[in-house]
Design a protein that fits this description.
- The protein is an all-alpha fold.
- About 60% of the residues lie in helices and about 0% in strands.
- It is built from six helices and no strands.
- The radius of gyration is 33 Å and the shape is flat.
- The two termini are about 60 Å apart.
Length: about 150
């Protein structure tokens, strides 16, 4: 109830300011001020203000936001640990052996290239690091401009 009253007062003040601006023959600015001052009343009438105040003043809603934040933190933490390679040993399992002592082949995509069709016993080579970028042209432009 208090939020609706405040929004109504802000709108009334804005419409008064728009009237003063129109009196000074600045009709475009007065129309813009009137449009801005009608927004709070429109939000009250649509129920957005009641919804927002319902969220702000309920402790269970804040607890829900805290739980969502905790879940996001756990996702980010596990993703960072996985990228560092610390969790790499967990997901790897022993390769099943095929008949007669040969290792079973891994499943590959139908359009996979020949190097990916390894026998599964050998570790795959890691991709080489990307070469350092050449910034000589950028340095030349900066020197040209005295930077």
């Amino acid at each position: 109830m208090l939020a609706e009253t405040i929004c109504s007062a802000v709108s009334a003040a804005g419409l008064g300011l728009a009237a003063l601006t129109a009196y000074r023959k600045r009709f475009l600015a007065a129309t813009r001020i009137a449009a801005y001052s009608l927004v709070p009343v429109g939000l009250v009438m649509t129920g957005v203000v009641a919804w927002a105040t319902g969220i702000v003043f309920k402790p269970t809603v804040w607890a829900g936001f805290a739980v969502l934040g905790l879940a996001w933190l756990l996702f980010v933490t596990t993703r960072a640990i996985e990228r560092r390679g610390a969790g790499a040993g967990e997901g790897r399992q022993k390769q099943p052996k095929a008949a007669k002592g040969r290792p079973a082949q891994e499943a590959v995509a139908p359009a996979a290239s020949a190097p990916s069709l390894g026998d599964g016993a050998r570790p795959r080579p890691t991709p080489a690091a990307a070469p350092a970028e050449d910034f000589s042209d950028i340095e030349a432009i900066l020197k040209k401009h005295g930077i």
